[in-house]
Amino acid sequence: MDALIQTRFDFPKLTKKYEGKVRDVYTIADQFLVMITTDRISAFDVVLPKGIPYKGQVLNQIASRFLDHTSDIVPNWKIASPDPVVTVGHRCEPFPVEMIVRGFLCGSAWRTYKAGARSICGVPIPDGMRENQAFDRPIVTPTTKAEQGDHDQDISREEILSQGLVSEADYTLLEAYSLALFQRGSEMAASRGLILVDTKYEFGKKGENIYLIDEIHTPDSSRYFYSEGYQARFEAGEPQRQLSKEFVREWLMKNGFSGQAGQTVPDMTPEIVGSISERYIELYEHITGEAFVKAPYDGALIERIEHNVLNMLARLT
What we know:
Elements (H helix, E strand, L loop, with lengths): L13 E6 L3 E6 L3 E6 L4 E2 L2 E2 L7 H16 L7 E6 L2 E5 L2 E2 L2 E9 L1 H8 L4 E2 L2 E2 L8 E8 L2 E2 L12 H6 L5 H23 L3 E13 L2 E5 L8 E5 L3 H7 L5 E2 L2 H9 L15 H19 L12 H16 L1
Antiparallel strand pairs: 1-2, 2-3, 3-7, 4-5, 6-7, 8-14, 9-12, 9-13, 9-14, 10-11, 14-15, 14-16, 16-17
Helix pairs in contact: 1-7
């Protein structure tokens, strides 16, 4: 099955197109964005050579769901999702930082801590913590927003303010919104027998108002643990059962790739691609509690997307 790797639409009033690691974003009349979530997959800030069928649909539909369920906390960019892989919304001026919220010491934060660091992005971390241990309260560890092909870089609140990347008033709101969103996401995860471990949020401005933009609480931007067995596994020092794309990173590292110069991405066989696709569908069903309905995947895929987007744009413009 061919995956949706690239789009080349020429929508009416198109003013800009941006290709991210996963999403193709079309700017319409400098007012609206058409965000198409492709089946591209990235790890270690590298886009892998093969796409994953249905991954785009999984991510778009999870993000769309969580945007709807958090709009009472902060306005978001979404207007509608006219196609399983498309969201159309307001164009905002993005802040040049991503807000990472961590409830547990794991992943890159654990690797940094294990190497001896006791501060992450200017946030002090106490001695004696163990991998996958919960923080007393969630912490915010921002990163710079990388341009395509570059790596995100850790940055502290103080550095963000001193460099003038975000005003102090806006940054205070970004932190408050991020922690409130994380709390809501944690509550929703708990209802599904999951623990929201860490995630990232992106924000932008339209006029004087701050909006939540891009995706939210998807397995590409978030890490989940299963609640059942968490404490026993933690006390025994065993790895946690996860719902995230960490399994892709682990497969890559096991096969000698971690994004370093000179390394080669291992062969992505049809079996590997198929298994990753199945895991993403599993993620969707666990996170949402609903059966995943596969949108038609045939030669008419591009035509379907174009038809649905054009109908949406006709109503907006």
